[in-house]
Amino acid sequence: MNRAQFMEQLKKLLSDISEEERQEALDYYESYFDDAGEEQEAEVIRELGSPGKVAAIIKEDLRSKRLEA
To answer: What is the Cα–Cα distance from 53 to 58, expressed in whole angstroms?
Structure first.
């Protein structure tokens, strides 16, 4: 899996959250990849795990923030 595939899957998995929240999350992970550099792409994907895992973390974080509000 490469960066583009990872981000596309993540986008699909986040389709059930608001557009604003989804775009914020996608922008964050795009920046994460940018900061690491192209040569570290595979390492970043290994660190993050699957897009499904990342999506679950994002959604859980959003739920927690809503409960705190």
So the answer is: 9
